[in-house]
Amino acid sequence: MIIDEISQRKGHKNFVTVVADIDRHKLLEMIPSHKQEKIMETLMQQPLVVREQVEEVSVDMWGGFCISVVW
Q: Where are the domains of the chain?
């Protein structure tokens, strides 16, 4: 799984967070925020069986991603 943020418009600070399955080349979520609380809320909506299947997560060094994944 990879988690990263992208700006919806170049030069603007309106970010979305992208969650993807890198092995299957599949977009899983586009979260309309890059705030930690919203990311955690969205990830926790996934069924437990799905969350338990995640073995590795690739994120950049933004602290909100790291905390969201570990939690």
A: 2-70
